[in-house]
Amino acid sequence: xxxxxxxxxxxxxxxxxxxxxxxxxxxxxxxxxxxxxxxxxxxxxxxxxxxxxxxxxxxxxxxxxxxxxxxxxxxxxxxxxxxxxxxxxxxxxxxxxxxxxxxxxxxxxxxxxxxxxxxxxxxxxxxxxxxxxxxxxxxxxxxxxxxxxxxxxxxxxxxxxxxxxxxxxxxxxxxxxxxxxxxxxxxxxxxxxxxxxxxxxxxxxxxxxxxxxxxxxxxxxxxxxxxxxxxxxxxxxxxxxxxxxxxxxxxxxxxxxxxxxxxxxxxxxxxxxxxxxxxxxxxxxxxxxxxxxxxxxxxxxxxxxxxxxxxxxxxxxxxxxxxxxxxxxxxxxxxxxxxxxxxxxxxx
Length: 348
Ligand code: MRU
Fold this sequence. Notes:
Elements: E1 5-8, E2 13-17, E3 28-31, H1 34-42, H2 49-66, H3 73-85, H4 92-108, H5 113-143, E4 151-154, H6 169-178, E5 184-188, H7 195-207, E6 211-214, H8 219-224, E7 230-233, E8 237-239, E9 244-247, H9 250-260, E10 264-267, E11 273-274, H10 291-294, E12 295-296, E13 299-300, E14 313-316, E15 323-326, E16 329-331, H11 335-343
Parallel strand pairs: 4-5, 4-7, 5-6, 7-10, 8-11, 10-15
Antiparallel strand pairs: 1-2, 2-3, 8-9, 9-14, 12-13, 15-16
């Protein structure tokens, strides 16, 4: 299975698999400053909510490595971590991870940057390991919702590449396959950056799980033909009422699934739930550059001078979500109550 990131303690570098270049080639990009990591996050070298969260944890280590031991080192470190938290707005895992690391620092009150670096590194390594156990738990719960012979549609990439390893939505599929169920996957290509065609297809191919890529706009026909039994997607931010932000196009898939009576599942860790946001209306939606839509491989698709719309995410209303699969168990409506119970450890 592909490994999204590694931290090299000797060189103090975060190595990120370059997701822009998959499937053409599998190479790693080294980040040794917070600025380099911000560029990598904004440029989609590392992407996917849990992956950017864990990358940010290591980014906090890079930040501590950068600050000099002066009377203002604490403020400088906090400022760098704050800049990192704002690299992309929609996936709450990024700001959640930065807040978590800052709180960890405050709790332990290191005396200097060297102590802070040591403390943050140990916590980042713990968060890296925790991401994998969390995904495996999501997979275990989610696999119970899939039946032998199912054809599962997924949108974007919520796999090993979007996490440290194993994945959320693809973790559910991996677990069901490991349980002996025959599962086929249809991966939406996921315009404009093709995470489904490039990343989901590559991961599942390596795992030997049957995968077929379809254009995003084939979804309605495939559902109408009865070829899809379940939809499983990831999430970037889930509001307290269950409304879920995920890759642009997800909401359309959910509306269609609802229309055709196909269960639509969201698989995500509890850290993707933002209880400070009541409904999806308040989730900030990232808008990205024109060229992602207007050009492919440097070739113009849209006439010069014509503007494009490039929202990176949309919000699926909770009414279209059959269940939210977390590491604490399967949440069903009303999500407000289920989320409160999950955070209180009263689910499973
Ligand atoms: O813009 P991206 O590629 O970062 O968007 C990623 C997604 O929308 C994923 O589905 C989501 O982050 C869940 S990943 C487990």
